């Protein structure tokens, strides 16, 4: 927690007002916990009510999405877009379709996005949107009709210089195609107001790989700076076999690691020979869940139907890439007991604050999501740059830029942790302070 009376009071007030938004309170607590020293040394933060302002979204758009399913029945979903902070650029952040979507989860994701986007050094503000629509089990036509009706409301609130959405959990290139297609029809212009589009629709080469590859580039920097080591022969586990997890596993293998376990909502597969990532990517083309099918191709692998069992697999490096709050204290204890010494977050807030504290106390190197998974939004920023200038960069050019951005993010976090935490490996403090300062300075420059 934090010691400054100012932070204590602001947080107490927030907790009272949003007592029913646990994920949002969790992410604010995580950020404020790093700001004690900054607040103490800089009275302007309190004088200008920076914290009170930064924790309230500039705008939340809430709307109903009605659509007709394949049997002709009318369905209703609830949707929202949280436009949290535009101090350093147009609102930018993904779109999530999942039954769990609510205001607390959208606010936590949009808040995290503010500081993540700041860390990339690209001019992007923070936002997130989504709906409690479950794409699983829906036909392509149903998904298309839902996306079109979602845009029928959202189109008036987004634009290339206003708010640029992208994909996230449950939203990939297919959904983005339907969303952008409808938006383009209404606006009658090809503005590129969506990133993670299909390549032929103006998407960037390397965007699909960016979050997972970027995560591995960040881990490489951690390994090199703190252990003078690299990925070679490290035992790696990855939760989530989706867009982020599958690409993280692919890159870790390419860099010489042995990925021995991976999960999705159907369970965990543990394959001591090394996970067959090509098989997983192939199965994903035609199946929504894949891990429960792996064993029929590799009978020696061990399957467990409980996704949480992944944290019991002995490993050197754990990459949580599925969803928020996957690693509670008991899983953190199991990881440490089984020899894990590095955790880096591909997902947003997969580790609870209690579990993160346990890692810190047990000298586990910890790469927080807002830094470690920033590669996705960074390449979204590069997609915006290509769209705005009518250019198409090669995969190699994008990947090279991604690599440089991830190195720069690591360096900035490392520098800030050395200055403010007195512990160079405290990348949580480093990422929070470094991400916060740019947004704070912009807010100060722009007045109240
Ligand atoms: P996807 O929908 O592509 O994949 C999510 C994967 O996680 C699926 O394999 C899903 O399984 C699995 N999963 C979901 N819940 C659980 C659970 N409780 N236990 C185990 N597995 C689970 O989403 P993304 O890969 O895009 O996103 C994953 C995470 O990364 C999210 O936190 C997202 O916010 C974050 N992120 C995404 C970025 C991006 O560019 N896409 C950028 C930065 C962060 P199943 O398919 O069986 O449901
Ligand atoms: O959480 C994230 O950073 C994303 N889902 C990607 C956001 C984006 O705008 O590319």
Reconstruct the topology from this structure.
Layout: H1 5-17, H2 22-32, H3 36-41, H4 43-47, H5 50-54, E1 59-68, E2 74-85, E3 91-97, H6 103-119, E4 125-131, H7 140-154, E5 163-166, H8 173-187, H9 207-227, E6 235-239, H10 243-254, E7 258-264, E8 267-270, H11 277-286, E9 302-304, E10 317-320, H12 329-337, E11 342-344, H13 353-361, E12 365-367, H14 369-372, H15 375-388, H16 395-421, H17 427-445
Parallel strand pairs: 3-4, 3-5, 6-7, 6-10, 10-11, 11-12
Antiparallel strand pairs: 1-2, 2-4, 7-8, 8-9
Helix pairs in contact: 1-2, 2-6, 6-17, 7-8, 9-10, 9-15, 9-16, 12-13, 15-16, 16-17
Mind explaining what this structure looks like?
- This protein has 448 residues and is of the alpha/beta class.
- It has three domains: 5-54; 59-190, Rossmann fold (3-Layer(aba) Sandwich); 208-363, NAD(P)-binding Rossmann-like Domain (Rossmann fold, 3-Layer(aba) Sandwich), CATH 3.40.50.720.
- The chain has helices at residues 5-17, 22-32, 36-41, 43-47, 50-54, 103-119, 140-154, 173-187, 207-227, 243-254, 277-286, 329-337, 353-361, 369-372, 375-388, 395-421, 427-445, and strands spanning 59-68, 74-85, 91-97, 125-131, 163-166, 235-239, 258-264, 267-270, 302-304, 317-320, 342-344, 365-367.
- The chain has a seven-stranded mixed β-sheet with strand order 9-8-7-6-10-11-12, sandwiched between helices. The chain has a five-stranded mixed β-sheet with strand order 1-2-4-3-5.
- The protein is globular.
- Residues 167-170, 211, 239-245, 263-266, 288-289, 307, 321-323, 326, 346-348, 373, 376 line the site of NADPH dihydro-nicotinamide-adenine-dinucleotide phosphate.
- NADPH dihydro-nicotinamide-adenine-dinucleotide phosphate binds at residues 167-170, 211, 239-245, 263-266, 288-289, 307, 321-323, 326, 346-348, 373, 376.
């Amino acid at each position: 927690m934090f010691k400054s009376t100012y932070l204590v009071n602001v947080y107490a007030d927030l907790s009272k007002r949003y007592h029913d938004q646990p994920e949002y309170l969790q992410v604010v607590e995580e950020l404020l916990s790093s700001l004690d020293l900054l607040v103490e040394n800089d009275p302007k933060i309190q004088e200008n009510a920076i914290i009170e302002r930064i924790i309230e979204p500039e705008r939340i758009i809430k709307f109903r999405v009605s659509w007709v399913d394949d049997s002709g029945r009318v369905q209703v979903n609830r949707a929202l877009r949280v436009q949290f902070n535009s101090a350093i650029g147009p609102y930018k952040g993904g779109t999530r379709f999942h039954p769990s979507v609510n205001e607390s989860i959208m606010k936590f994701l949009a808040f995290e996005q503010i500081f993540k986007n700041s860390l990339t050094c690209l001019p992007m503000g923070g936002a997130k949107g989504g709906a409690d629509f479950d794409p699983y089990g829906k036909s392509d036509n149903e998904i298309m009709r839902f996306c079109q009706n979602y845009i029928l409301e959202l189109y008036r609130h987004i634009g290339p210089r206003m708010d640029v959405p992208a994909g996230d959990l449950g939203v990939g290139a297919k959904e983005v195609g339907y969303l952008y297609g409808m938006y383009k029809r209404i606006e009658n212009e090809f503005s590129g107001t969506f990133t993670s589009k299909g390549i032929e629709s103006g998407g960037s080469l390397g965007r699909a790989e960016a979050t997972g590859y970027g995560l591995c580039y960040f881990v490489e920097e951690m390994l090199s700076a703190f252990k003078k080591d690299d990925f070679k022969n490290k035992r790696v586990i990855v939760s989530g076999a989706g867009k982020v997890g599958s690409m993280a596993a692919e890159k870790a293998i390419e860099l010489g690691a042995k990925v021995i376990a991976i999960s999705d909502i159907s369970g965990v597969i543990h394959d001591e020979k090394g996970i067959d990532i090509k098989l997983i990517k192939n199965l994903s083309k035609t199946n929504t869940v894949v891990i429960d099918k792996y064993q029929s191709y590799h009978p020696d692998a061990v399957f467990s139907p409980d996704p949480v069992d992944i944290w019991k697999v002995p490993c050197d490096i754990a990459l949580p890439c599925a969803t928020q709050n996957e690693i509670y204290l008991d899983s953190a204890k199991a990881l440490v007991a089984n020899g894990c010494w590095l955790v880096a977050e591909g997902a947003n807030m997969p580790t609870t604050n209690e579990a993160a504290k346990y890692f810190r106390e047990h000298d586990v190197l910890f790469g927080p999501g807002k830094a470690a998974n920033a590669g996705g939004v960074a390449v979204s920023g590069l997609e915006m740059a290509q769209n705005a200038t009518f250019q198409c960069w090669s995969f190699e050019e994008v990947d090279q830029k991604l690599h440089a951005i991830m190195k720069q993010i690591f360096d900035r976090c490392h520098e800030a942790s050395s200055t403010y935490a007195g512990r160079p490996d405290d990348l949580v403090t480093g990422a929070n302070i470094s991400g916060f300062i740019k947004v704070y300075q912009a807010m100060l420059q722009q007045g109240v």
